[in-house]
Write a structure and sequence with these properties.
Blueprint: H1 9-15, H2 28-41, H3 66-85, H4 93-102, H5 105-119, H6 124-145, H7 148-158, H8 168-183, H9 190-220, E1 222-225, H10 235-247, E2 254-257, H11 260-269, H12 273-284, H13 296-312, H14 318-322, H15 331-362, H16 374-386, H17 390-394, H18 399-414, E3 416-420, E4 434-440, E5 446-455, E6 465-470, E7 481-489, H19 502-519, H20 533-543, H21 550-556, H22 568-576, H23 582-599, H24 609-619, H25 636-639, H26 650-666, H27 675-686, H28 694-702, H29 709-714
Parallel strand pairs: 5-7
Antiparallel strand pairs: 1-2, 3-4, 4-5, 6-7
Length: about 725
């Protein structure tokens, strides 16, 4: 299961969806003078300058400017919202909703830089600023969402006759604004509003600490190996490990970092069972070591505060509130999907473990398969069943060639052409970051830029994600896109290509799908980029399917040394093994998704995180050989922010759409490159972003709703019984 799209705080700020009471502000004239002076003196506040309609000044980022920029940006933004709220003219779409779309731009620019420090180049100094500012930012958002006069104007537009004259996109923006404010406490009494805002501030601090604790454990635990401990590891992994150890001052050693990409490879190939156990325990113990970075107490505090807050709004549990505006609508609907798939997933795990145990017994290993053995023996089963060696496949998966393959797919489906921008023309925040210009292949029209930051390093959070530095809009003149993909691949040694696993190649395509979602937008307003969480993963999951198309396989999967195309016999094995190990992959993901729903539908007073995790997994008959993909104390998706809280199920919900849409392409006359279907794909599933209700958009593409049968077929599971 791929990493989700990073939810940037700047979007929430610009939309004003998470935040409360009016404040006295300077006059617009005074404010304008302050703006000019401050922006000229602080690059983080300044409008983007340079080529391509302006780009972030990543080469001039100064951490000393961050706190003043945030403080000023909040002050300026609140003044702008207050002018809107105090407008004596009757509320209209133009003077209220459009005015809100324009507000907060300076602060939005600051958060482009904040996101880089937070995700790509964190440091102790930044984390201290983050810890201090998180509650202040929460208070800022509350001053917007609980501004009574502002809400009344939104309500007036929502209930006005003007609504009928607006476009579908504009009507959706107004509706989302209104319901967003209501869901964030706009209708509460003064006392409850005050407590609501206090809870938000407390949560902001706790969630920030949760994330920083996980990052500290990822940075703080590195296993250094000697040459005698490398048995079974691939040549490329050994070289990369030596390079990482050298960078950390351990020349002659080999570093296994506490990241998923490093852990996955080590557990798959190392023949040293004791070391496998050590690496496994270190990775899955993040945030759970009983030290200053332990997250158990934070989990209970976060859940308790979330529960109290939704109680103020009259909901029974947090998940009920969270899913109200999602495709699933209710936690019961989300759990129903999980329950349709879960039995088949754990049944498949039982089969997979039996196959592994048989091999271990045949080798006289004298072991019972444990979690740290799963990847290692799964690889042996793969070789025995399909004669498929993952390391052999890896020789044909060069990072640069896969990027070219993604460009080819984007050209065929979206008519995009990618041209690398010369070094130095566009500022970047690290030497590993490269930038490409994106244009329409036919007209030559400039679409935007694509930034790529592919490699793991200290200070960079784990996983893979996509984000934007500027989204496409037309309401103030056409704005081009600045999109970004970020990964944590283990960098190949100097002068050698970076080789990645098949799973990592799928992740690469997945995140690029998010970038294409940004780049293909044709919406008018910034708010139309706010995603419905159990839908936004659909487009990116769908793009993974093009990795296995003949056009990609035959032209871009070539051996890193000989340049020879991948043999068709090996391709056949890959396709035959497409559903191999699906029990493990589905179970580790779904256990996390189900636990997320359980955490957010249970009274927190009854929850002790470690005991709750053990007891609920026991109740689910969780196979003891598999662990949650994200154990509770490291579950960043749901405890470091609220974007995926009670919504991690969304990957599976989106996967139902993905499997159904993939079958449409598989059955189309032109297959996965069918022109007519590709046009519908771009028109209804990518370009509209959130300007159209997701269910309606999917029906326009497919002609009907999706169903779960395609998903079960994809995974090789029996169809669920009615």
């Amino acid at each position: 299961m791929k990493k989700p799209l990073l939810a940037t705080l700047s979007v929430a700020i610009l939309l004003g969806l998470n935040a409360c009471t009016s404040t006295q502000a300077p006059s617009p004239i005074t404010q304008a003078k302050i703006n000019t002076q401050k922006i000229n003196n602080n690059v983080l506040l300044a409008e983007f300058k340079g080529p391509y309609g302006g780009v972030p000044a990543f080469d001039k980022m100064d951490l000393a400017q961050l706190k003043p920029a945030l403080e000023y940006g909040m002050q300026a933004s609140l003044a702008e919202y207050q002018v809107i709220a105090n407008n004596p003219a009757p509320a209209t779409f133009e003077n209220t909703i459009v005015a809100m779309e324009k507000a907060g731009k300076a602060l939005g620019r600051v958060f482009r830089y904040w996101g880089i420090w937070s995700s790509n180049k964190s440091s102790a100094e930044f984390r201290e600023i983050q810890r201090e500012m998180a509650p202040k930012l929460s208070a800022y958002r509350s001053k917007i969402s609980q501004n009574k006069a502002l809400f009344e104007r939104i309500k007036d537009v929502y209930e006005s006759e003007e609504m009928a004259t607006l476009t579908a996109e504009e009507q959706r923006i107004v509706s989302n604004r209104y319901h967003g404010f209501v869901r964030d406490g706009a209708l509460l009494n003064a006392e409850d509003k005050k407590r609501y805002a206090e809870i938000n501030q407390e949560l902001a601090g706790l969630q920030t600490k949760f994330a920083n604790n996980v990052l500290a454990d990822e940075e703080g635990y590195v296993l250094y190996l000697t040459e005698e401990q490398l048995d079974g590891l691939s040549e490329s992994f050994v070289k990369s490990s030596a390079s990482m150890a050298s960078e950390r001052g351990f020349e002659g050693k080999y570093a296994v970092t506490n990241s998923r990409s490093s852990m996955d490879q080590f557990l798959t190939y190392s023949t040293d069972r004791d070391l496998r156990q050590r690496v496994w325990e270190t990775y899955y113990s993040r945030g759970n070591n009983g030290d200053e970075n332990d997250n158990n107490a934070l989990i209970k505090q976060i859940l308790t505060l979330r529960h109290e807050r939704i109680g103020l709004l009259g909901y029974e549990n947090y998940a009920q509130w969270r899913l109200e505006d999602r495709m699933a609508k209710t936690p019961e609907n989300a759990m129903d999907l999980m329950e349709k798939v879960w039995p088949a997933a754990i049944a498949r795990v039982e089969e997979e473990v039996a196959d592994m145990q048989a091999i271990a017994d045949a080798e006289n290993a004298n072991i019972t398969i444990a979690p740290w053995d799963y990847r290692f023996y799964a690889e042996k089963v793969r070789k025995a069943k399909f004669d498929l060696d993952s390391d052999e496949v890896k020789q044909y998966l060069q990072l640069d060639k896969l990027r070219e393959a993604m460009f080819y797919v984007a050209g065929e489906l979206f008519n995009f052409a990618f041209t690398e921008v010369p070094s130095g023309k566009v500022p970047v925040f690290h030497e590993d970051v490269k930038v490409w210009e994106v244009n329409d292949k036919t007209t030559g029209k400039f679409i935007g830029l694509w930034y790529l930051d592919p490699f793991a390093r200290q200070g960079k959070r784990s996983g893979a994600w996509a984000t934007t530095y500027r989204s496409y809009t037309t309401f103030e003149g056409e704005k081009s896109v600045l999109s970004s993909n970020n990964s944590n691949f283990v960098k190949g040694p100097d002068s050698e290509p970076t080789l990645i696993s098949w799973d990592d190649a799928e992740t690469y395509f997945h995140e690029f799908g998010h970038a294409l979602h940004f780049l293909s937008a044709t919406v008018k307003y910034p708010s139309s980029h706010s995603g419905v969480r159990d839908y936004t993963e659909f487009q990116s999951q769908l793009l993974e399917r093009w990795l296995l198309t003949d056009e990609v396989i035959n032209n871009y999967l070539v051996h890193y040394q000989t340049g020879e195309p991948i043999p068709q016999s090996l391709v056949a094995k890959i396709k035959q093994a497409a559903t191999f190990n699906e029990g493990f992959k589905t179970t580790e993901y779904m256990s996390s998704a189900i636990m997320d729903l359980l955490y957010h539908t249970t009274d927190p007073s009854d929850i002790d995180p470690q005991e709750f995790e053990r007891e609920q997994l026991r109740r689910l008959n969780m196979p003891e050989e598999v662990v949650m993909r994200h154990r509770s104390t490291q579950f960043m998706h749901i405890f470091s922010s609220e974007g995926y809280a009670a919504a991690y199920y969304g990957y599976m919900w989106a996967e139902v759409l993905t499997s159904d849409a993939a079958e449409a392409f598989a059955n189309a006359p032109g297959g996965f490159y069918d022109k007519e279907l590709s046009e519908r794909l771009v028109k209804y599933l990518f370009s509209v972003r959130n300007a159209m209700e997701p269910g309606e958009a999917y029906r326009k593409f497919r002609g009907r709703d999706a169903n779960v049968e395609a998903l079960m077929r994809d995974r090789g599971f029996p169809l669920p019984k009615e």
